[in-house]
Amino acid sequence: MSSTIKVKPEQLAAAIRKELESYSKAATEETKELIRETAKICKEEIQSASPVRTGKYRKGWSIKPLWEDNDSLREIVRNRSAWQLTHLLENGHAKKNGGRVQAYPHIKPAEERAIERVMNGVKKIYSAK
What's the pTM value of the predicted model, to 2 decimals? Predict the structure, then answer.
């Protein structure tokens, strides 16, 4: 239940601004935490679904923070060790002497689940406030 605040008419604008800033800060922090958690889960899903030959590709997945300020956060899941292989393994490719190499879709399914997780989480955050 919300508390009642008594303010004078000349202080109303400042009181509203203070409450909106408090709401915005809380929602932003929850959203940032959701993004960090989703990036971690997405990395783990990609890592577990990655094809294994030597293990270097599978072990190379990491999370890199691209940008963070008071209002936003951007993180990327990437492969440090064999980034050149991500497109080839995800989509397959042509062989040198004809034919094709089988695709191992492991990034796109995790990406789609991460997008859904963030969208649902943001809806919950902003509907609960």
Answer: 0.81
